[in-house]
Amino acid sequence: MPRHQPGSSLRAARELYLEVTKDPSARPLVVASWQRSMEHQVKSGSLDAPYLDNPNLESPLARAALPIVDRLHEQLADDPVSMMITDRNGVVLSRRVSHEGLTTNLNRVRLAPGHVFSERYVGTNGIGTALASGRPVMIAGLEHYVEALRDFHCAAVPILHPTRRTLLGAFNLTTIRQGSDGMLMAFARSVAAQIEGEIAAITSRRERALFHDYMEACSSVRPGPVLALSRDVVMMNEQLSAAVTGPDHYALLDHAREIADSPRTEGTRSLALPSGRVAELRVSRCRREHSDAGAVFRVRLIGRPQPGPAVFAAPVRSDLGLVGSSPHWLRAVADSRTAFVAGTWLHLVGEAGVGKRTLVEALHRAHGAGRRLEMTQPPLSDSPAVTEGWLHDIEELLTVPSTVLVLRDVHLLGDQLRHRLRNLLTHLDGTATGQLVLTSQPSMAGMEDRFDQLCGALVEVPPLRHRHADIEVLARFFLRKYRPSGESRFSPDALTMLQRCPWPENVRQLESVMRGLARRPSGPMIHTEDLPPECRVSSHKVLTAIEALERDAILRGLMDRNSNVQRTAQDLGISRATMYRKMRRYGIVPSSLT
């Protein structure tokens, strides 16, 4: 086959198609697909269908489609027809075929679960072309771009979400029979319609269940503001829509969505709103058909709106020396100060790197005159001698009036040691003269595993992603800290990238990034290309040191290769399937790197 350069015109694609197929009545849809295949640099002489481990069989599409496909498979026993379900990226989620000869042929071309059959990798084919065009397609014989697929006849139909009409995936029928194209397409359309109908039914049942729980909350004796959320639905009553407006509205929805996305999160959560008020959210899950249908929030608003904070040209620092002016952060600081000054036992809860230790040290500097600050962490060993000594030290320190004891990372305690520590603190409660401060990270443990009941105050320190307005002032503060002699500013694009970064390691990670920028020579303006690769990902996952090195190597390779995944994989010595698996794991989107 002649070589054609990427970016060839539609006319060149048609000429190539006619040269291969000798078919003067080429369908425009197929020729356009050949053009895309040429632009993707698909090699017609070899098949490259990447493989992804563990395709997601828990997606709404898979749950709705698989029972239907299984029933039809029984009816088509021994017929040389294969039925497949793919996701919207062309990953084969499921394949049903009972004809031994067809199974062998399909395996030979890797048309099997886990392999990706999008046009980008395999060129014109039923699955990839249906997904790329958004239309039902029949790709038969020589119409396939890759030679290895030209023995097959494929009918594929896109499957759309019943309400949003977004692409979920495709249903595909493949056979090696000739002359049955019309029947094959009619059957594929019928099955796709059944799958869409089942998705609609499941969605409807889940939405009805959520609506039932929402109406039940609204019709209670004292309903107050009520919000209900799922992936597809947002409902709120008049009390909530009237009481929460403007920035408070968006902040409340943003936090509620984050809570709703964690199916095990229930109970009561407090949220500081931009206006200065606090929203107390009582969360109850709506579970139907062994799956999560969303969450209902009963909202209680505390306080009155305060005047908005002024816009500062310099980093905003409180009288404690802490940077930041977002309401969430200021509320945490104020509540912590009140408890600390009163000598109340305090429990600080927040993700790693949010500044819990920094907050305690600032409070001690400002209000701990004459008192000694002691910090300890869970012991590294579970041996009886070590744990006994650790508990004894805690008891000794809490009997000293001038001591502020900080027990860090109590979420890391094992069940047995947690139980013993609770018993010790319960025994000391009311008699201890020292002040206790606990710090922990949010966990999925139930309330009975926490120490809230032993502390007079529980304060949630917000993650950096919830302190949107503070990211710029913190970045400038750290930049000045590590480069005191220079003055640098962020370009609008660089600032936007910083504010969009999820910062899974929070303020600690932002400080590390700014320290690295300060050590590198740069002009007065910091641009997006000056920012390190970790600012260009969307994952909230906290990485190990080795994982971070791997992520950065992939990011730098993609940036050097203009987001070309195949070439970057070759440079790194890994397969393209592995490359895509790691990109998905680290939240790397190639289009965001250019």
TrEMBL record:
* Keywords noted in UniProt: ATP-binding, DNA-binding, Nucleotide-binding, Transcription, Transcription regulation
Question: Quick check: keyword Transcription regulation in the entry?
Answer: yes
- Fetch the PROSITE patterns from UniProt: SIGMA54_INTERACT_4
- Keyword Cytoplasm, does the record have it? no
User: Could you mention a single GO BP entry for this protein?
Assistant: regulation of DNA-templated transcription
Which residues are in the Sigma-54 factor interaction domain?
Answer: 448-519
GO MF entry, a single one: sequence-specific DNA binding
Full protein name: GAF domain-containing protein
- Give the organism the record lists: Streptomyces cupreus
